[in-house]
Amino acid sequence: MDKCRINIAVIEPSAIIYEGLSNILLQEGCSHYNIYHFDNIEEISCEIPTGRIDLVIANPALIKGNIKTFNSQKRTGNSIPWVALIYSFFEREIVDLFDAVIQITDSPEAITRTIHNLISLKCQCKTESREQLTPRETDVLKHLVQGMSNKEIAVQLNISIHTVVSHRKNIIQKTGIKSQSGLTIYAISNNIINIEDYQE
Q1: Which residue numbers delimit the HTH luxR-type domain (predicted)?
Q2: In this structure, what CATH number is given to the domain that contains residue 178?
C-alpha cells in the first residue's frame, strides 16, 4: 500500500458541496488524497476500498441529532481527526465536539492548510506536486465538460476513440475526479474553461 495515500471521508449530503471540497483538496497539490463520500455518519462504518480512514470531514447538521453514534465512531477511530464543515449556525456545544472547523467561506488555501496540519504526521508527501494534464488531455477535458461523447471528441480532435478513452483515464488518474460535475469544477477552477462560456 502506498504509505503516502491519505483517505478522507466526507460526510455531506450536498453533492455540489462535496464536489467543490474534493476539488479544492485535490487541486492544492494533494494528489495523494483518496476522498470518499458518505451521506450519513453510519455509512463510514463500511469498509472503504483502501482500508483505513485517516480523517473525517462532516456536516455538523448530521451529528446534531446523532451525538451517540458520533461519539461511538470517534472512539472506534481513536486518533482520527474530525473536522466540522460549517455553512450555517450551530450551537457551540456541537462544534466543540470536533477537532477542527472549516467554514464554507474559507479560502481554498485556508481549507487545505487546516487539513494538512491535521494529517501532517501521516503524510510524508506533502510537498509532492500534482501531475499536470498534458495539452491534449486538457483539450479532451474541455470537450468532456461540454458533454461530448468519446466519438464526438475523437472527430473534433481528429484522433481515435481509443486515444480519447486513454486520455480520459489519464485525466481521472491525475485529477482523482471521476464525475462530470467534479471535472467541470476542476476545469473552471484551473482556468481551463471560463464559467461564462460553459453557461452559454
Answers
A1: 126-191
A2: 1.10.10.10
Residue 127 lies in a domain: no
Spacing of C-alpha 11 from chain mean position: 11
Q: Based on the domain organization, do 142 and 110 belong to the same domain?
A: no
147 shares a domain with 51: no
As a residue count, the chain comes to 200
User: What pLDDT was estimated at residue 129?
Assistant: 47
Q: How many domains, the chain?
A: 2
Contact yes or no for 126/6 (Cβ under 8 A): no
Sign of the Cα pseudo-torsion (115, 168, 43, 39, in order): positive
**CA R_g for the chain:** 18
> Does 104 fall in a domain?
yes
Domain that holds residue 94: 6-122
C-alpha–C-alpha distance, residues 100 and 96, integer Å: 8
- Region 179-194 average pLDDT: 76
- Give the tens place of pLDDT for each residue, 47-95: 555 567 888 899 988 887 788 888 877 777 667 888 999 888 878 888 8
Q: Which of 20, 54, 62 is nearest to 38 (CA)?
A: 62
